[in-house]
Task: inverse folding
C-alpha cells in the first residue's frame, strides 16, 4: 500500500452535518461525495475517515450507535462503488457528560492522535498525506504533522492563523486537486 493517504473529515465534508447525528437513517451524502471517494479508490489512494464525535462524551450517542452509523455509511458508499479504507474517531470532549470521556485528549482534532494512529496502522508517511475538511481545525490537524490541508469552502469564517493549501468548492474539487498534487 502507498505510504500517502487522504484523510477525510465526515460532517459537512462527506455527509451533511446533522449536529450529533445518532440515527443511521439520517445519513445524507453531500452532492458528489461518494463519487469523490471512488476517485481516490480508483487511484489506489487510501481514503481514511477522521472524525471528532464529541456527542459520545456528551452522552448523546454511544460507541455502538456510532459503529452502526459508520456501518451504514460504508453500505451506502458500497452501493455507489466507493469505500473507506478505515474510520477513526475521537469520542472525547473536555466538557462532556460521561466522566471517563470528558478529558482533554490527544485525539480530538486539531490534535494529531488519530492521524498518528492511522500512520502506525497503515505505515503512512504523514508529511506526504493530505486532509480534506470543512473546518480550519481539519487543516491544522494535518499541518501539525507536516502534511497538506484542503479546506472545503462552506462559508464558515476561517481565522487568519492557518492558510489552507487549497480551498475547494466541494469534496470533488478537493479530491481532484489532491490527486493532481500527488502526481507532482
Ligand atoms: Mg466537519
Ligand atoms: Zn479524543
Result:
Amino acid at each position: 500500500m502507498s505510504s500517502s493517504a487522504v484523510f477525510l473529515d465526515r460532517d459537512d465534508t462527506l455527509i451533511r452535518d446533522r449536529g450529533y447525528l445518532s440515527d443511521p437513517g439520517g445519513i445524507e451524502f453531500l452532492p458528489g461525495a461518494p463519487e469523490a471517494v471512488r476517485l481516490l479508490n480508483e487511484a489506489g489512494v487510501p481514503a481514511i475517515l477522521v472524525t471528532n464525535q464529541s456527542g459520545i462524551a456528551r452522552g448523546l450517542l454511544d460507541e455502538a450507535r456510532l459503529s452502526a452509523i459508520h456501518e451504514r455509511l460504508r453500505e451506502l458508499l458500497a452501493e455507489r462503488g466507493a469505500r473507506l479504507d478505515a474510520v477513526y474517531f475521537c469520542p472525547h470532549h473536555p466538557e462532556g457528560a460521561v466522566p471517563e470521556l470528558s478529558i482533554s485528549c490527544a485525539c480530538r482534532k486539531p490534535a494529531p492522535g488519530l492521524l498518528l494512529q492511522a500512520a502506525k496502522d497503515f505505515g503512512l508517511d504523514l508529511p506526504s498525506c493530505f486532509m480534506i475538511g470543512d473546518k480550519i481545525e481539519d487543516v491544522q490537524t494535518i499541518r501539525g504533522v507536516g502534511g497538506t490541508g484542503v479546506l472545503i469552502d462552506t462559508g464558515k469564517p476561517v481565522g487568519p492563523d492557518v492558510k489552507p493549501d487549497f480551498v475547494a468548492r466541494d469534496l470533488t474539487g478537493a479530491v481532484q486537486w489532491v490527486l493532481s498534487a500527488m502526481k507532482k
Notes: The first strand starts at residue 6 and ends at 8. The mean pLDDT is 95. The pocket of zinc ion (ligand 2) is lined by residues 90, 92, 105, 107-108 (CB under 6 Å).
